[in-house]
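Q: Given only this backbone (146 positions), what sequence would you predict?
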């Protein structure tokens, strides 16, 4: 059964190097975009936004209500399509498409379908304060693992 959107959950103990967050779901047929946010109480440390209507992925940070410069330099083509499943690999479900965010000491490493997509240097460096996850947009959310 899909999870209700917007989806909010806490990240116990906040982020730290080697912490992995995995999100799985299906992009809706008429999707324009969706996002995955890693947040503090008042800031968005990392927003990952596939924009299907622009055929790109954008990532950014919002600190004290001000957005930084968007980044969108993908090493390969757009990894998401409408009606495209992205799933968490398990022993019973083969590796499909999944979004995996790994918190490293100085950056986030994001992969889609097991293929590295981007590295994003931390703009908000207080990793333990990043203790919330939000997912919302044009998708059917199946699971989140923090």
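A: Predicted residues:
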């Amino acid at each position: 059964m899909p999870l209700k959107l917007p989806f909010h959950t806490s990240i116990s103990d906040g982020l730290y190097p080697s912490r992995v967050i995995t999100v799985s779901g299906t992009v809706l047929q008429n999707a324009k975009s969706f996002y995955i946010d890693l947040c503090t109480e008042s800031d968005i440390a990392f927003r990952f936004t596939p924009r299907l209507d622009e055929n790109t992925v954008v990532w950014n940070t919002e600190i004290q209500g001000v957005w930084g410069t968007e980044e969108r330099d993908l090493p390969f083509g757009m990894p998401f399509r409408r009606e495209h499943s992205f799933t968490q690999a398990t022993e019973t479900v083969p590796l499909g498409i999944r979004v995996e965010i790994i918190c490293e000491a100085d950056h986030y490493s994001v992969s889609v379908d097991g293929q590295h997509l981007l590295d994003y240097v931390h703009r908000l460096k207080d990793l333990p304060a990043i203790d919330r996850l939000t997912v919302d947009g044009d998708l059917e959310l199946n699971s989140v693992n923090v």
